[in-house]
Write a structure and sequence with these properties.
This protein is mainly beta. Helix content is about 5%, strand content about 50%. The chain has 3 helices and 20 strands. The strands form 3 sheets. Strands 3-4-5-6-7-8-9-11-12-14-15-16-17-18-19-20 form a 16-stranded antiparallel barrel.
Length: about 375
């Protein structure tokens, strides 16, 4: 479940990432597990999406009937949360809120067409809406030519977003981009290095341009050691990220920019002693957005947003893990917290069933109320995969 967009008086529950043939496990890797992909709990990373895509494309066809080629999976998340917001002004009353609800339902359908060809559709229920979150065709190469191509609606390869937490890291809120795209990639160096490039029609266009394919992404991920994974990525159109487009369709953001602004991201995940995991990611714009182009059309300040996230996770037992987070942003207005820290406990008490207990403290500045705000949020999430 993605959460973290802060609007004036409250946190708005935003869309979660997806599962399916290109989706990750729900938690960061813990090396001592026999199959980390079976772990439930946490935010899904782009790295794990690619791994599961490979697994789906390489699976054998069980028979010649159409139903032998179909694989169905899904995710259900139920959440309860309590939040207290403290306004740093005596003239504004503090607020609190709580709720319990069905947060997310996902249903993924994967069709193994022939060898090296897969079709994938992901249906999602969220915020009382049902929609197609992903739908694409995936082509894979051979062992001697480890290339791949993904065409259709997908999450483009910008950022990594590995996390143990229920709440999305600030980097995901800044950079996650979903839409129609064509992405091609190639692996080399005994498949320890993955290079991908993609084209897409950005949701936010440059003023005066036609509605054409005008945006691209580049990504390189390397695993030089079994305990170390790192990567960098670039997008030519950071404003096409989902958070900014949601502002545009809500009427508080813009649909055109004076100039497109690119963004970059770098991440590193380190496994320590087969029990601890260090996660670090940084993301930022490469130039300034003009006043009023991001967050709110009434904003009078040029913005060059950046975001970062650092987590340390520890496997206590095979089924129990704890993690701490420190993250934040610059030029995030009331969308990204200036600072964020907290702790989460993930307990996989049955197979593919996880209970997460999370506490996060966030501080926001430069809000639409011109009042600094601090929020303490307590979340309990029960999630099952099938």
């Amino acid at each position: 479940m993605r959460r973290g967009r802060f609007k004036a008086c409250m946190v708005v529950l935003a869309a979660s990432m997806t599962i399916g043939i290109c989706s990750p496990a729900l938690s960061a890797e813990v090396a001592y597990e026999e199959d980390p992909a079976q772990k439930t709990g946490g935010v899904k990373s782009l790295e794990k999406r690619i791994e599961q895509l490979e697994n789906a494309v390489s699976r054998p066809i069980e028979g010649q009937k159409w139903y032998d080629r179909i694989e169905i999976g899904g995710l259900i998340e139920a959440e309860a949360h309590y939040q207290q917001i403290d306004y740093q002004d005596a003239a504004v009353a503090d607020t609190d809120e709580s709720d319990v609800d069905l947060a997310t339902v996902e249903l993924a359908v994967d069709a193994r067409i022939v060898g090296h060809v897969d079709g994938h559709v992901l249906f999602k229920y969220e915020d009382d809406d049902v929609f197609v979150d992903e739908g694409f065709i995936a082509l894979s190469g051979t062992e001697s030519f480890p290339a791949y191509l993904i065409a259709g609606r997908q999450y483009v390869p910008f950022g990594n977003f590995t996390s143990y937490f229920v709440t999305d890291p600030t980097t995901l809120i800044l950079g996650e981009t979903n839409g129609g795209a064509v992405v091609a990639g190639y692996r080399f160096g005994d498949e320890r290095v993955d290079f991908s490039a993609g084209l897409f029609n950005g949701k936010i266009d440059q003023a005066g341009d036609d509605d054409t394919i005008d945006s691209f992404v580049l990504s390189v991920t390397a695993k030089p050691l079994d305990v170390l994974t790192a990567g960098v990525s670039y997008t030519s159109n950071l404003a096409s990220a989902d958070a900014f487009f949601e502002d545009a369709i809500d009427g508080v953001g813009v649909t055109e920019l004076q100039d497109l602004v690119g963004g970059w991201s770098a991440f590193v995940n380190v496994d320590v002693l087969d029990r601890f995991m260090i996660i670090g990611e940084y993301m930022g714009a490469l130039d300034d957005f003009q006043a009023g182009e991001l967050y709110d059309t009434t904003d009078t300040t040029q913005r060059k947003p950046t975001a970062w996230n650092i987590e340390l996770g520890a496997g206590i037992t095979e089924d129990l893990e704890v993690a701490v987070r420190y993250g934040g942003s610059d030029d995030g207005a009331d969308v990204l917290p200036e600072t964020q820290y907290g702790v989460v406990l993930n307990w996989g008490f049955f197979e593919k069933t996880n209970l997460a207990l999370e506490y996060l403290h966030a501080k926001f500045e430069d809000t639409s109320l011109a009042v600094d705000q601090e929020a303490d949020t307590y979340t309990a999430q029960l999630a099952v995969e099938f």
